[in-house]
Amino acid sequence: GDSVTQMEGPVTLSEEAFLTINCTYTATGYPSLFWYVQYPGEGLQLLLKATKADDKGSNKGFEATYRKETTSFHLEKGSVQVSDSAVYFCALYNQGGKLIFGQGTELSVKP
Amino acid sequence: DTGVSQDPRHKITKRGQNVTFRCDPISEHNRLYWYRQTLGQGPEFLTYFQNEAQLEKSRLLSDRFSAERPKGSFSTLEIQRTEQGDSAMYLCASSHGTSGRTDTQYFGPGTRLTVL
Hints:
The complex is a heterodimer.
Chain A: E1 3-6, E2 11-14, E3 19-21, E4 23-26, E5 32-38, E6 44-50, E7 56-59, E8 62-65, E9 75-77, E10 86-93, E11 99-101, E12 105-110
Chain B: E1 5-7, E2 10-13, E3 19-24, E4 31-37, E5 44-50, E6 53-57, E7 65-68, E8 75-79, E9 88-95, E10 106-107, E11 111-115
Parallel strand pairs in B: 2-11
Antiparallel strand pairs in B: 1-3, 3-8, 4-5, 4-9, 5-6, 7-8, 9-10, 9-11
C-alpha cells in the first residue's frame, strides 16, 4: 500500500541555519504531496503542497519540489528561525479520502 | 471562515465509559474526516464522510467506534467501552471534496482523550 517515510528527528539547528527534512513516498499512480506543521499545543496546519511532478510548493520561506523520479518531497528552508520549532509531517493523498502521513520530524531551533 | 472546531479539547474518562466528540467543519465543506494520532506518530485515518454518507472506514475503527454526520454538517465520533489503548488525540479535518486529487484537508485543534 501507499506509504510515507520521513527522516527521524529530533533535528536541532541554530538560528539562520539551512534546513532539510527528507521525505520519500511509495504510491501507485500520481498522488498529491503535502507538508503539514504542528506547533506546540496546536493542531495541524497546511504548510505547502504540490499536486504533480516537478511542481514546487512554497510558503513562509519553506519549499519542497515533487520529484517523481526519486519519489521524494524534501522540505527546505534557507534560514530557520526559533519560531519554526515544531513537528513537520509529510503526507500524500492518492485515492479514496485519506491522507497518509509520515511519522513526523521534530525541529528545534536554538537562538 | 472560522476554521474547523472540535469539542471538547480534552477528555479524561475511566476505562469502560462511553465518550462522544464533536467536530464542526468549515462551512460549505462537503467532506469531513476523522484521524487518530498517538504520541510521536503521524495521524492515522479512521473514517470520512461525503455530506452525510460515510464512505470509508479504516480497520482501526473497531465495533466500539461509531461516527455520524447527520444532515451533512457537524459530525460526532463515539467510543463505547473505552480502553486505555484508546488514549490519543482525535483529529477532525474537512475539505471541499470537489477538487479530486488536489483536494486539501484543513484540520481542527483535536480532542485529547485520556483513558484511566
